[in-house]
Amino acid sequence: MKIPDRLALRFHARRSLKSAMLKAVMPYSAIALVVVACEKPPVEWKGAAQQLAMPVPGDEGSASADAQLVFGADGSPALATIAPAPTMPADSAACPGSFRVSALSKTEIYSTWWRQRDSSHASLVASRSDDGGATWTKTVPVDTTDRGALACARPAPSIFADSTSGYVHVTYFLHSPAGPGVFFAHSMERGELYHSPVPIVYGERPSASAVSSADSVVVVAFEDPNTQQPKIAIAMSRTWGHIFSRERPDASEGAAAVERPLVAVKFPQIAIGWRGQDKSIAARVGTLRSRTN
User: Fold this and answer.
1) Which of 48, 181, 218, 252 could form a disulfide with 237 if both were Cys (CB 3.0 to 4.6 A apart)?
2) Residue 227 falls within a domain, yes or no?
3) Are residues 118 and 140 in the same domain?
């Protein structure tokens, strides 16, 4: 009787063990693949985008600056005029056309704008009015890390003051030390202090953005800076903007050459709007899926 040597026994044992491990792992790998394949997107869109009427007829060119996306009484998206403040913060270094405002109440108004630092760089700053825009508090920094060469030649920021949470949310394009892209910052202290910026997406192309919220749910819509075909993507947070989910779904799928995003949130509904090539504004409505769906 021939007795196998020790080397042959070790080889046989290793091969058997490896075969057993593969058999044990394969079912779980297959399950994981099925779970990933069946994972639902974070938003369930309801039909195609629909054209929106301008708040002021013929005002298509300024819709992103002077109008906001809202939900009508019937739940459909609509454009509403943003009431201008009677005065704006005095700033001789302000970039022309960059002022944006959002009212938390009739008297409490927040503003943000780009301030040119030198021939190449700009800082994002903000202020608050407690008397309906008659006077403004001292200017506070939102983001001063710009390292690019755009100066004032960049999209205006977006601001939204949430009357439910009391938080103020701001989005903008800036060339940070980590790279250029769209960023988010917010204040939980009535605009007295803005917390460290959070990157939404990195990309070279200067991109406009918009932000809205409903208490803990914050949605950022932005021109994707990394695609050849212009599109509007979104980022979502369910933690008041402290953490954003990793998904960046395309909200303008099927639309061509879109720009200047708009966003409205009425949880669980969201509406995303954009301007098309013909300068008209379109929007689509979706429902945010629950975490357990």
Assistant:
1) 218
2) yes
3) yes
180 residue type, one letter: P
Residues 6+ apart with CB under 8 A from 18: none
Q: What is the CA radius of gyration of the chain?
A: 25
Q: Which of 147, 228, 209, 159 is nearest to 187 (CA)?
A: 159
Instruction: Write the pLDDT tens digit of every residue in 201-224.
Output: 999 999 999 999 999 999 999 999
Domain residues for the domain of 51 are 44-288
Same domain, 31 and 92: no
The answer to whether the beta carbons of residues 180 and 233 sit under 8 Å apart is: no
Q: What residues in the chain have per-residue pLDDT under 70?
A: 1-39, 56-65, 291-293
pLDDT digits (tens, 9 = 90+) for 80-114: 999 889 999 999 999 999 999 999 999 999 999 99
pLDDT recorded at residue 34: 40
* Pair 79, 151 in one domain: yes
The 3-class secondary structure across 171-219, one letter per residue, is EEEEEECCEEEEEEEEECCCCCCCCCCEEEEECCCCCCEEEEEECCEEE
